[in-house]
Structures are given as C-alpha cells and as structure tokens.
Amino acid sequence: DGTTRQKLLLAGLVGLYAFGVLIASVNRLDSLGEPDLGWHLSWTEISPTRQDAAASGLRGGGRPLEINGRSLDTRSIREDILPGIRWQLGEHNVLRVKPAGRPVRELSIPVRERRFDDLLYAHGATLALGTLFFVVGFTTFVLRPWETSSWALLSLCVACGGSLWTLLPEMSGAPLEEGYRRSMVGLGFAAVWHASVAFPSVHPLLLRGPAALIAIYAAGIVSAFLQLHAWRSGWQGVWQYQSVVNSGLLLIALTYFIGRCAALALRSQGLVAQRARILLAGALFGAALPVAVRFVQLSFGRFEVDTRYAYWSLAFLLWALARSTLRTELLNARVAAQRAAVYGMAVVGLTALAVVLSRFSPYLVALLLLPLLYIWPLFEARLNARFYPKRSQLPELVRGLGEDLSTASSVQQALEVISRGAARVFDARSSAAFLSAGVAGEEPRVGSWGVAVAPEPALEKEPLIQVMAATRQEVQRDQIAVEPQYARIRDDSYACLDRLDAELLVPVTIEGRVVGGLAMGERTTGDHYERFHIEVLHSLIQGMVRDIRRIEASERLQEREREFSDLKRFFPPPIIERIMAEGGTAELRSQRRRVTVFFADLRGFTAFSERREPEEVVATLADYHSAMGARIGEFEGTLERFVGDGFMVFFNDPVEQSDHVERAARMALAMLGDVADLRSGWERLGYAIDVGMGIATGYATVGFIGYEGRRDYAVIGSVTNLASRLSDQAGPGEILVTPGVRVELPAGIKADPAGEFQLAGFSQPQSAYRLLAG
C-alpha cells in the first residue's frame, strides 16, 4: 500500500545491503588459496584471522608494538609498516604485541594459503550477526510497513548489517569492499541519530516534516565522503582524525538516546514507559560497549582487544529495538516474564534431577524422559489455566454469545448483546458497539454496557474513529502516545476513548469497509488485551455482522410484505410484481403524468339502502364490488378508492400503458355487461339498481397522499373532477366520455355525441360522448 517513492526508498535500502553482501561474498571466495598473514592490523589493535595465529598467543587481540623490527609509534601504517611485511608463502612475520592484561610477547606467525575454515574463523561471527541485523530489520518492516519506527530500524539494520559483512580482518582489502565499508560508516552514523529520534516514541522533529531526516542523512553523506576521500588519498592522519570525530558523534547520539529513554522510562506510563525501559537496557548493555570501546581505541589508543568481541553485544540492542517496534509483543510482558520464570525453574529442577540420576546410571536419565513426555503437556495446560483462567471457558462463553446474537430481533438489540457479551467474555468493565449512519438504517446506532454516560451515536465524525477507518486496524490507548498518526489528534483521541470508557477500539468491517467499532473498557484483571483477545473480538464482530445482515434481511422481507399488502389495496397482482421488481414503493414518487380516469356510481342505491336491511345492502355491495374488482385486475387498472356505491380507477400509472384510454373503455363496457347480469338477479328481488360511468383523460399529479399507516395512491387534477362529474351526469346503464377519450378510441369501439353538460366545478359547458355497448 506504499507510495512509489516509499517503494523506491525501500528497494534502495535493501539493494544497498544486498550489494554489500554480494561484493563481500565474491571477495571472500576469491581470496581462497591466496597468502594469508594470519592477523589483521589497524593503528590501534592487531587481531588474529586464523585459529593457529590465535593459539600462538594472539587470541583476543592486542596492541601492536613492532612488526619485523619496525615500530608502530608513528601510527603511519601505510608508509612505515606495509613495506616491511612479508607476504610470500612459507615466510614468517615477527610481531611484538601487548595483549590485553598480559605482558608483551614476541610471536612468529607463518604466511600460508587461506582455507575455507580460515574464512569461517575470521568472518563467520560478524557475517552471522550482520545477517541477523538485516533479517530482524526487514521482517519488522514487513510486519509494520511504512511506519516511522520501522523505517528507522530498517535503516539502522542495513547500516550495521552492511558494515559487519564488509569488516576486513586482513591487512588490506579489495578497494570496492573497503570503499563500501567506509561509506557505510557515514550511513551508520546517520542511522543511529535517526533511531535516537524515532524510539521509544517519535520525536516531534520527525512529525514536522522531512527536514530533520534530510539534515541527519546529509551529515551522514558528508561524513562518508570525507572518510572515503581520506582513505583513497592515503591521508592516514586525516582519516584517523575523521574516524575519531565520527566515533565521537556516534557516542553523542548514543548518549542522547540513552538519556531520552531514561527520561521517558521515569516520566511516562503504559506502553511508552515499557518501550523506554526495554530500549534503555538494550542501549546500555548492547550498544554502549562497542561504541565506547571503539571511541577509546581511536582517540587514545587504549583497549588492545579484538573489537569483534564487542560487536556481539549489539545483538541485545537489536532485540530491544525489534521488541519495541512490534508493539503487539509488548502488551502482556508481565505474563511472558512469569511464564519464563516458571519454565526456568522447571528446567533447572529437571537438570538437577538428571545430574543426580546420571551419577547412578545414564539409563535412569533416559527413563526420566518417559514420564516427562506425559507430564509436560499436563504441566503446560495447568500453566495456561493459571495465567489465562478464562481461556478454558472461552468456547462456551463465545457459543453463548452467539446464541444470544441469533435471537436478537433488531439491530439495536444486537449491538447491546455484543456489548454486554464481549465485556463478559473478557472481564471488561464496560463495552460499547456502534454503527455509522446508513449501515443499518439512515441514523447511526450505538449500544453500550457499563459506560458511565451513554455515548452519542454520531461517532464516525470523531478524528480517532476516522483514523481507525482509514487504517482498518484496532487502536489501543497506549498506541496514541507513540504512533505518529495520532500526534496531531492526541487530545481528541484520548477524549473519544474517555467518552467510551475504552482502552481498545476494534473496527467493524463489512466487505472491507469500516462501518463502526467495538470499544472495550479496562479489564478487571488489570491485564492488557493481547493479540489472541483481539482475534477473538474480530470473530465475535463478524458473528454480529452476520446477525445484523440476517436482521436486515428479515426487516426487508417484512417491509416487502407490508408494501405488498399495502399495494394490494390499489394495484392488481401483475402491476404489483412490476413495482416490486423496480424497487417497491420507494420508487413511487409523486409525478405529473397523463392518465385516464374512470368513475362509476350506482343509480337508485340511496333509495334502495333506505328500504332494505343493512345485511342486504352489504351483501349486494359485496357482489357488485367483487365483479367490478375482477375487471379492474383483468385490465390492470389502479384502484384509488371505493366510496360506498362508487369507486375510482385510473390507468397509465404506476406502470406505463400505451393503450390506457382503450383499456379504460373496454373495462367500462365489460363492467356494464357484468352489472346487466347482476341486475337481472336484483330485479327478481325487487331491487331497482343500475350504474352510471364516466371516463376522462388528461394530465394530473400522481402519488401517495396521507400519513404513515394510512395513505392512498391518488390522482390530483381537473381530469379526476371531470370523470367524476360525467359519472354523476350519466344515466342508468350509460357511459359518458370526454372528446379526448373519443379521439383515442380504436375503430372497434363506437361512441355517439351526448351533447354538452354544465358540470359542477366547470365554468364552461363540457361536451361528452356516449360509449356504445357491443
């Protein structure tokens, strides 16, 4: 996910290390079979490069005094010493050496061919350490890419690893390798300063922009250039002075780093203090020794020892840096320390028992392994139960929480269940789950348990939540003090966590997008949330997301059923199916449209209802409405309403119908025939009832009117009034239509002029036509 510039910089650092490994490997292999002096000389120390040279009295190195009678007091190796060294196979070099803590000795070391075991003796330790440096730096960068602390650690590891690979325990090395090593001195100086402002927490200088890093590495490049130029020019004295200056600057950087770690270890709390303590120990016991030894050697010519011994302490600094960079490894250091102590005591006890048994017979030690193979897993299980008392109950707790979620009938209830259940599973004092607006409805939602003051739902506007949504990573309170992305919003982030009573925020994701979060409060045990706990929380959140989707699907189904039931009041089934396929009632917006409106009203019904019992009236209307409803569905008309003995139907909405005028006319004629059939039965019962109908076409506004729970799908406009008035004007068994309807009727449907009518609500007389049956 890095930028192109970041990827190029990463490739450059890795390539720089790989180049050093390549040239060092080629030069080492090419040197096999060449004359080997058996020792390496600098102006401050001499150290062995072969096992036999070490055994002859040079082990651990020492201070060189004379070589073949030439004194080193002038400290000019190139001019005074090199000409007197014997390089031919079989020759001997006579050395006067002052080993550390021992009297002056005179050694005679032969020149012989270099073998592979000599390379391992001379270079194996430094090559292993250099490889370890790069592996730790690169692995940490892969696990936490593009972060400030990861860049600092990788730069430091590349500088140290490359320098260790190209250390030259010979009198003179290949020019390319020697130049690379001296160039890496400058990078190492800059990398140490970089690390000193990146650990234990990012220094404000790095947060203000790249200017500080540019200055640091510019100084490193200048230092490397001066070192390289002095070496190439043979300026032994200048190179010596430059080396002392670089060593002093390195010591100053390390001193600043140690002081910063000590101050943060005393003044800070939580993760910052924990990081500072680890790094302080790593700097004191890992880096101080080689840096101080080298500075004293270069400055005062003291400590006549092989510097390679001091380099091994760097591994402790490397461990401390990697440990502090991978923050998830730090979150439960107390439990890790206790486990290590218990394992240590167990190993000591078993070792002591094995020593005692071995005095009697070695077979008894072998027999000890048999019960140990059985007891050790039980011991491990008992230890886990001691340090993690709830892990054995975790499957049952998680299963119970899943069952509770499966019974949740609303999104709000699911949020409250996950809040209460997650707190119970992890012994948290409080918990809150929230979803952003638009995820499960138009409004944001939040459910909490144990929170002192219920948080506001609109949490997605909080800067901390926005950072979590951008990174899609969990956030712990201790991170805010040390991670650079929170530097500008530190106070807002703490305020957000305080409102949620939270120590940990875990994102809720749907299809890779963060749509909410789960805030976990402080644990009652006082322990931190480990990676194991966070992974379990992610699993619980995914279960909640599945149940929220189930709830939403159920709510959508119920809403669809409500919509279908609602639409059945107005539309026939074929129209409803088209509406639901196109999005349901949400798509039925009010709009202006050309429609054809039909009205029908019974004649003589008022007098009939006054003389008959209510049961007879209702039964008669039921027969009438049943027959008319069947025709409405047949011709796919939209029923607006039944009003007593009258009803209204319109066409061309909500589904477009190109033949809407013809549909209305044919439906009216069919209804007229149905009423004729009904009338024959009514006449036998003595009912004098008939029907009058009116049809008009024109533009109107169509859509839902009313309020939630009671609404109608209506047509508003003069065309509705005109059709209603024509229905009122029509005689028994008569269908009156407007001239606009008459014009659009097909040739098979006849209509005669019915004259002009003065209709209520219209200032001018309205012409009408009489639709002819048959």
Question: Can you put this structure into words, describing what you see?
Answer:
With 774 residues, this protein is an alpha+beta fold. It is built from 26 helices and 21 strands. Strands 14, 15, 16, 17, 18, 19, 20 and 21 form an eight-stranded mixed β-sheet that branches. The mean pLDDT is 81.
Strands, helices and their partners?
Layout: H1 4-30, E1 35-36, E2 39-41, E3 46-48, H2 51-58, E4 62-67, E5 70-71, H3 77-81, E6 92-99, E7 105-110, E8 112-113, H4 116-143, H5 148-165, H6 175-198, H7 204-207, H8 211-233, H9 236-267, H10 270-300, H11 307-311, H12 314-325, H13 333-360, H14 362-387, H15 394-406, H16 411-425, E9 431-435, E10 445-449, H17 463-471, E11 475-476, H18 479-482, H19 490-500, E12 504-510, E13 513-520, H20 531-567, H21 573-581, E14 591-603, H22 605-611, H23 614-634, E15 638-643, E16 646-651, H24 660-684, E17 690-707, E18 710-716, H25 718-729, E19 734-737, H26 739-744, E20 751-757, E21 766-771
Parallel strand pairs: 17-19
Antiparallel strand pairs: 1-8, 2-3, 4-5, 4-6, 6-7, 9-10, 9-13, 11-12, 12-13, 14-16, 14-17, 15-16, 17-18, 19-21, 20-21
